[in-house]
Write a structure and sequence with these properties.
The complex is a heterodimer of chains A (about 350) and B (about 350). Chain A has about 350 residues and is of the alpha+beta class. Chain A is built from eleven helices and eight strands. The radius of gyration of chain A is 27 Å and the shape is flat. The radius of gyration of chain B is 21 Å and the shape is globular. The chains are: A alpha+beta (about 350), B alpha/beta (about 350).
Chain lengths: ~350, ~350
């Protein structure tokens, strides 16, 4: 009894107790929800489980990245293809949106009125139109106005743009034919070939991929530009004046004084934009790009396993988002200590006007 | 910014999943008919817009073959063909909407298959339209057979059995076609009509519908003769509600039987009083009361035929040769005329 009273009176243990109670309640609630779902599924004769993942998918995927796929492979391999396609779009989108966002953000703070006007218009136009509509617009524009693949735009006989997509050259790994020792496996240069039937290529960005990448990067870049502008404006004027008095050029001031200090302001909201971009990539299904959601939709419709397919989607997007958040938090830690190691309050001091 | 799985887009899927997760007691058995009578209305899941099968006009008035089936059932059960609330559903939404109880019957050009009958907690009723998956290509390509589509890019609508059939056909004929799977009909249509895809594939009736509604000149597109799959379309209902299942099934058979016996919306009143054919009298409730066995009144089919028409009237009005879809009866002719439509005997 004495021990219990003692524990109760001890603040730390009391807090532990509260936490334990909450944890148990949460666990019980989760168990109840799961159990309930299971019973309901059973009662209504709806079959469930993840066993379908090892069944033959039976559908083809028009566009794959890194690995190949055909209908005789399994559902989980189809999901993998979808995931890789999602990653491809997300990565391209992240890079393009960051580069574009940085430049437009810098341009927004430019002293040149035309550049400033252009950047402001760009931001207001892009970020105020729903992404889905922009996506459909880009897709319809691309497929409507590009020429058919029998008469593509071409550049230097190495790049072709048509309704089939953007064909470009690259290196491919050529396996030596079996039982032929005279030819060893090696890299070969592969470029698109154009003949009256159309363009034949090993490397191609389809109009679906182009439109979703374009729409995602433009849309996100407008938000990033605003974040960059805000970050730059948060740098104290004294810092710039000090740099000017040291006779640094405008570019040097931007690169060595303004941007490093702005970076610590920019990184946390930038993380949000990156997370949004990855999640928004799920709109790819609208224009027929075979991303994870597209594949999951097909799987869901063929197997009827709605709960399972949605659970997979949620898990994958959650994992992707957590990885990005983790990476960005590490970047944040770095830029926070960029100026003065170990000084957590540096940003406060810097923003104080003299 | 919302992700793809926003509530508006997949409302039914979400309500369904949430209801599975949260509600403890679910027992729908025998309740659909009671709740329909109580609401005095049938909730019918239909296509968001497929000309000839289920589409709303500018005044919000629904028409189509699938729509008329629901109207006929409402007429038989509730006495008026207008006591239907139509719920437009996309392909991925439809089963969840039925499973969750949002709708009482799903009449949305849905293909019957073993997987759907056995694993979704749903029942197939009777076939209202025998269809098959076909291909549409621009006429100027001069393609005469689907087997000429080697290496072609093909536009597909998601949420259907289409992707699998296409894969099977492509494998069997070594065609290596590349599918582009769209969720949005607008994007799929834009891709096909701009030439991004060499061919468009879905049920042949759907192709006819898209051609009549979306093409600048319907004559510039041909539907190839091969059908690569069997697509028996018809309404589905929830499992565990046998009364309601029986009603939907027998109303459809009743419409077919009416055609077979030569009863249509114009002749039904006369035949009721003047016919001497025992089969006609039985169907129209003049001799035996068949409706009672289903929990309905004597006049169930007589009323449905008077208000909506028999099967051939429904077919001709919505998809027949005089409509923009211009579909022949073909497989959907009565069994007595070389087709597949065969009503179980009403006796």
């Amino acid at each position: 009894m004495n021990t219990l009273t003692h524990l109760w009176n001890h603040k730390r243990y009391r807090l532990y107790l509260y936490q334990a109670v909450v944890l148990i309640l949460l666990g019980a609630a989760l168990f109840w929800l799961g159990h309930n779902t299971w019973i309901n599924l059973k009662q209504r004769g709806i079959q469930s489980g993840f066993d379908f993942l090892s069944d033959t998918a039976g559908f083809d995927i028009g566009e794959t990245f890194l690995i190949t796929f055909d209908g005789s492979q399994t559902y989980w391999q189809a999901f993998l293809v979808g995931l890789l396609n999602t990653l491809k779009v997300s990565l391209c989108g992240l890079v393009l949106a960051s580069v574009l966002g940085l430049w437009v953000g810098l341009g927004r703070g430019s002293l040149h009125p035309l550049i400033k006007l252009f950047c402001s218009t760009y931001i207001e136009l892009i970020r105020n139109v729903p992404l889905m509509i922009q996506l459909l617009m880009w897709y319809v524009l691309l497929v409507e106005y590009l020429p058919p693949s029998t008469e593509p735009y071409s550049w230097f006989h190495h790049f072709y743009l048509s309704q089939e997509g953007f064909a470009y050259p690259g290196f491919i790994w050529l396996q030596s034919p079996e039982g032929n020792p005279t030819l060893s496996s090696h890299w070969i240069w592969s470029r698109p070939v154009f003949d009256p039937q159309g363009v034949h290529t090993d490397f191609n960005w389809s109009p679906e991929f182009l439109s979703i990448t374009l729409a995602l990067s433009l849309y996100t870049s407008a938000f990033i530009a605003e974040i960059v502008r805000a970050g730059i404006q948060s740098v104290a004027r004294g810092q710039i004046e000090a740099a000017q008095s040291l006779a640094l050029t405008p570019w040097q001031i931007k690169r060595w004084v303004v941007l490093p200090q702005a970076a610590r302001m920019i990184t946390p909201p930038l993380t949000n934009q990156y997370l949004n971009l990855v999640k928004n990539s799920s709109l790819a299904v609208v224009v027929g790009y075979p991303d994870l959601v597209n594949i999951a939709n097909t799987a869901l419709n063929q197997t009827g396993r709605a709960l399972e397919c949605i659970a997979i989607l949620m898990l994958v997007y959650l994992t992707l988002s957590l990885v990005i958040a983790w990476g960005m938090n590490r970047t944040n830690d770095k830029v926070r200590h960029y100026l003065k190691k170990g000084d957590d309050f540096a940003p406060l001091k810097l923003t104080q006007r003299a | 910014m919302k992700t793809h799985f926003s509530l508006e887009k997949n409302r039914f899927l979400f309500i369904f999943c949430l209801s599975l997760i949260f509600f403890s007691e679910f027992s729908w058995a025998g309740k659909t008919l009671d709740s329909i009578k109580q609401k005095d209305q049938i909730s019918c899941g239909v296509n968001t817009g497929l000309a000839g099968f289920g589409s709303a006009d500018s005044q919000g008035k629904w028409s189509g073959l699938d729509v008329d089936i629901c109207r006929a059932i409402a007429s038989a059960v509730l006495g008026s063909a207008d006591k239907v609330r139509f719920v437009p559903l996309s392909a991925p939404q439809r089963f969840a909407a039925l499973q969750s109880g949002e709708i009482d019957i799903l009449s949305r050009n849905t293909t019957f298959s073993l997987t759907r009958d056995a694993s979704l907690g749903l029942h197939q009723t009777a076939v209202t339209f025998y269809d098959g998956q076909g291909f549409m290509v621009p006429a100027k390509m001069n393609i005469k057979s689907a087997k000429q589509l080697k290496g072609a890019t093909v536009c597909v609508q998601s949420g259907t059995t289409t992707e699998k059939n296409l894969n099977d056909f492509s494998k069997a004929n070594k065609l290596e076609v590349k599918p582009i799977v769209f969720e949005k009909l607008e994007a799929a249509n834009a891709a096909y009509f701009s030439g991004r895809c060499k061919a468009y594939t879905t049920d042949a009736s759907g192709l006819a519908s898209i051609r009549s509604k979306e093409a600048k000149d319907p004559k510039e597109h041909v539907i190839l003769p091969e059908l690569i799959s069997k697509e028996p379309l018809g309404p589905m209902v929830r499992r565990g509600d046998d009364e309601w299942l029986a009603i939907t099934k027998w109303v459809i058979y009743g419409l077919l039987e009416a055609e077979e016996l030569g009863i249509d919306s114009k002749s039904v009143e006369n035949l009721k009083n003047q016919s001497t054919d025992p089969a006609v009298l039985r169907l129209l409730g003049k001799s035996d009361d068949m409706g009672k066995l289903l929990g309905l009144d004597r006049e169930w089919i007589a009323r449905a035929v008077a208000q909506v028409g028999n099967y051939s009237e429904i077919f001709d009005r919505n998809v027949g040769e005089k409509t923009p879809l211009a579909l022949k009866r073909g497989l959907n002719a009565l069994w007595t005329r070389g087709g597949l439509q065969y009503a179980m005997p009403i006796r």
